[in-house]
Structures are given as C-alpha cells and as structure tokens.
Design a protein that fits this description.
This protein is an all-beta fold and 350 residues long. Helix content is 3%, strand content 41%.
Length: 350
C-alpha cells in the first residue's frame, strides 16, 4: 500500500462558531504513522482521492478547489475564474477520468476537463429556494448514473435534489415529491426555520447510484434514505429504521469494488453523540450494522479506499474521531486527529 493515505477534512460548525481548535486537512498513512496537518489555514469541507490516480487529491474549501499532485503532501489552489465559492463535493466521471465536477455553495457546479487542474463554472442550475437557513444551500454530493456520463444527480443541503442529462449545462429540480412526502407526520421536520415542515426532506447530504441498479439512485436525508426509480419524479422511503435505531442519513456510498455493496452513515441528528455505519449487500434493499465502534458525534462520512475493499474509514463530527478497519470490518482501530480540532466533515482514502 505504498503511498496510500487516509485523509480527514475539518471545518467549523454553524451551531458552535466560537468552538476552538484546528481546521483544514489532515493526512496519515493507511498502514501506520502519524497524522500530518497538510492544509492549515482553510476550513476543508470535503476531500476526494481521484479513483484513476491516487496521487491526485482534492480539497473543497471556502477558497474553491485546492489540488495536490503528490498524494496530499502539498496543495495549490486550482485555476478557476471569478470569485471563489465554497466547494462541498467532487465527482470524477467513470470512463472519462479527465472530466470532473465540483459542487458549490451557493448552489452551483464547476466542471474540469483536465483532471481538476482548471475549472469553469457551469450555468446556474436555477433551483428555487424552498426554505431558508443559516447558510446558503450546498451541493453536498454528485453521483453519475453508471453508463451515462452526462447523467448526474446531486444532493443539496436544505434544497433537496437535482439532475442533469446534458453534463451539467441544465438541471431539473427533483424536490417536488420530497416536499409531498413531508406531509406525512413522521417525515415533517423544521429546525432552523419555521416556514415549512418540508425542511427535513429537503436536507440532502449524499446521493449514490449503484451499477447493480443503475436506474435507482438513493439519497441520504435528515429523514432517512429514499430511492427513486423514475429519474426523481417520485421517491420511496426505504424505511431504514427497520434495520437501524438511528435514521439521520449523512452519507451513502456504493463500493468501488462491488456494485451491490453500499455503506450508509446513520446517526441521531446533525448534532448528536451516537450513530453507526450500515452495510447493504443487495444494492440497498436490506442493511446490517457494519462498524464495531462507539462514536461520540454524528457520523459525517464513510471513506472507502479506492483500491482496497477491506479498508473502510469512519469520521465522526466531534473530538477528531476517526476509526478504520483493514480487514473488512472484523477489527477496528481508533485513529484520532492530534490536538484540539473543530468538526470533521469528510474522510477519504487511497
């Protein structure tokens, strides 16, 4: 595993603006070693290891995209015109690895055709604001429909979901049915504002599409996991509460090594002290607990190694908590970040 690393992205939290501690990006060898603080001066909202070249590592920051060509040892700001936006997500297109996308806040999408060296802002997706919050809506996750490089889904925090079929030039809002579902008593939620009880169903954190079921994206929301089979016109509740006592969906990813294997991070709420990682081996129909650790913060991210299916990492919000397994979940190692840090937002490995 020469050159293989695990990365943890650390930023502040809107509910604790005065919380002390370091922010940025940390790097550590996956085998053994100490954490290095490789980005120190910028909050880092997400980290991404390019699946075709693990030497390329990307950090999403308030200052746009920062890129490393040396396995995360050093970073430089990528070329991007216009004022910097917060960057919250990355996607590399399967079969066309030079083409990448980055999701931003306020809602926007950047495209690169040179593996992230330079970026251009695509046309405004035109997603209307359905509820307000203490931050501008964010494109939290981008996922490609397998076999169709121009069909991409996005999950957006407090803005639901959207889809493009032309490589990001235009987007369709997929949130009407999420709002409809919020009329059900158990799916109503309004925390940061009181103008609509659809807030929880619009609180999108992650979305994924399994090659084993390519027409059925699954989105992770505040209210659980939901799936569409008609391009986002309607959504069905996967009722993940049948398998997990906690249902706040913060992350969901399909294994890059087995299309039927999915991992989901399920916690109590955005600010909580418990949660678990659940694994599905049938493309999301059934789930079982995967991790064997007790976290003390909301599980924010599941990091799947780009080349080793046995290595999975978990990042929990508070106290710099990172855990990892090297043997497919049989045993786990605590890998806490050094010193006092703010909140973990994402982990990645490769």
């Amino acid at each position: 595993m020469t050159g293989s690393n695990v990365y943890a992205a650390v930023a502040g939290y809107v509910g604790r603006p005065d919380a002390p501690g370091a922010v940025g990006l940390f790097r550590r060898p996956t085998d053994d070693g100490e954490w290095e603080h490789v980005i120190r001066d910028l909050e880092t909202f997400t980290v991404f290891v390019h699946p075709a070249d693990p030497a390329l590592v990307f950090a999403g920051t308030p200052d746009g995209v920062w890129r490393s060509t040396d396995h995360g040892a050093s970073f430089r700001r990528a070329a991007c015109p216009g004022p910097a936006r917060q960057v919250w997500s990355f996607l590399a297109i399967d079969g066309d690895p030079d083409r990448m996308y980055a999701g931003a806040s306020p809602i926007g999408v950047y495209r690169s055709d040179d593996r992230g060296a330079s970026w251009r802002l695509l046309p405004d997706p035109g997603i209307r604001e359905r509820c307000s919050g203490p931050f501008a809506p964010r494109v939290m996750r981008l996922a490609q429909r397998p076999g169709r490089p121009d069909e991409i889904y996005a999950a957006m925090e407090i803005a639901g979901a959207m889809r493009t079929t032309d490589g990001g030039e235009t987007w369709a809002d997929l949130s009407d049915d999420l709002v409809r579902l919020s009329a059900l008593p158990h799916l109503r939620s309004a925390i940061v504002q009181k103008e609509t009880e659809a807030e929880g169903m619009l609180d999108g954190h992650a979305i994924t599409v399994s090659p084993a079921d390519p027409d059925a994206p699954i989105i992770a929301l505040r209210m659980g996991l939901f799936q569409t089979r008609d391009g986002g016109r309607t959504w069905q509740d996967l009722e993940v509460g049948r398998f997990s006592p906690t249902t706040y969906g913060r992350d969901i990813k399909v294994s890059p090594h087995d299309p039927k294997t999915l991992y989901a991070a399920l916690s109590v709420a955005a600010a909580s002290h418990d949660g678990g990682v659940y694994r599905s081996r049938d493309a999301g129909r059934t789930w079982s607990r995967f991790d064997k650790v007790q976290v003390h913060g909301t599980i924010m991210s599941v990091g799947l190694h780009t080349s080793d299916p046995d290595r999975v990492y978990v990042g929990a919000r508070y106290q710099g908590e990172v855990f990892g397994t090297r043997d497919g979940g049989r045993t786990w190692q605590a890998m806490p970040l050094p010193g006092q840090v703010k909140d973990i937002y994402a982990v990645a490995a490769g």
